[in-house]
Design goal:
The protein has about 300 residues and is mostly beta strands. The protein is built from one helix and 18 strands.
Length: about 300
């Protein structure tokens, strides 16, 4: 065993000087859909990135993680348009914002309902702590806050929940983002901790549970500007409280897998993706088709 370890170590010592002489490789792409990328857009650079989601639910997962499919006469889904705006305050500090407008639809027992409106809004600050070197990745810190701009109370029971576009809580969060480029691959990882603040929903004091979101993505770069992307997203949120009493089975967990293909040049980056809920608790089982592009001014 020690001989094998020594042999691997010796090979690494021999390979590293050759690798260290290679020029820095910085691939261009739209990046993953959910996973953040650690490199920033750069000082005085403005980029916009719209997202277009078409999501339909094939069923739901209960509080034990068991899957239940929708009945033949039931429908549920949404069409969502997101707009990300990135602006580089310095080479190490970036300000971002996200706006979302969505259309919800549902059908239950012959009753159809739909509604549309602005969802919750996010502001972000990202700071690049460390540039990538030959061994270590880019490391970026994230601060975000969600503003409850979407409708969340006084919902119409005849609309089957389609008139809900948020939860009514301000939600500050902190996170870390890592990116490592190893030609022809780029690896991205982020973890974000969210602490929702107390709010009132229809007069009831409500405290949503703390949440952790972790994402991992890998991009494989092909000739002529093309790239393939594979992404994994996990989310955990504790039970909520109403009037300081914990509500059983109000926690949420889910695990998503995505795959996509992109094309990029210096000015525009495109990505088309399919995303699927593999497992969850107290969440819908969704399939999403997503398109995005990045344009830099």
């Amino acid at each position: 065993m020690l001989k094998k370890v020594f042999f691997v170590f010796l090979v690494l010592l021999l390979i590293y000087p050759v690798y260290a002489q290679e020029e820095k490789w910085e691939p261009i792409s739209a990046g993953p859909f959910t996973t953040w990328t650690a490199p920033l857009c750069g000082k005085n650079v403005l980029s916009v990135q719209p997202f277009f989601f078409y999501t339909h639910s094939r069923g739901s997962f209960d509080d034990e993680g068991k899957y239940h499919s929708l009945a033949d006469d039931q429908r549920k889904g949404q069409i969502q348009q997101q707009l990300f705006i990135y602006y580089g305050l310095t080479d190490h500090l970036e300000f971002d914002t996200q706006f979302t407008y969505q259309y919800n639809y549902a059908k239950q027992e012959g009753v159809k309902a739909h509604d549309r409106g602005l969802s919750d809004t996010y502001l972000f600050l990202r700071y690049l702590f460390k540039e990538e070197d030959r061994l270590l990745p880019y490391i970026t810190g994230l601060f975000q806050i969600k503003f409850p701009t979407g409708k969340y109370q006084k919902l119409d029971p005849d609309k089957l929940g389609t008139d809900s576009f948020g939860n009514g809580a301000y939600e500050p969060a902190l996170g870390l983002i890592f990116t490592k480029n190893l030609k022809p691959f780029a690896f991205h990882l982020d973890t974000i901790y969210t602490y929702p603040l107390k709010t009132k929903v229809d007069g009831i004091k409500t405290k949503y549970g703390k949440a952790i979101n972790s994402d991992f993505a890998v991009e494989y770069f092909l000739p002529k500007g093309f790239n393939l992307m594979l992404e994994f997203n996990g989310f955990l949120q504790a039970d909520k409280k109403e009037e300081n009493k914990k509500i059983p089975a109000s926690d949420t967990k889910y695990f998503l897998v995505s795959g996509g293909i992109g094309w990029s040049n210096e000015k525009v980056q495109l990505l088309l993706d399919y995303q699927r809920t593999i497992w969850a608790e107290n969440a819908d089982a969704n399939d999403s088709y997503v398109f995005t592009f990045v344009y830099t001014f």
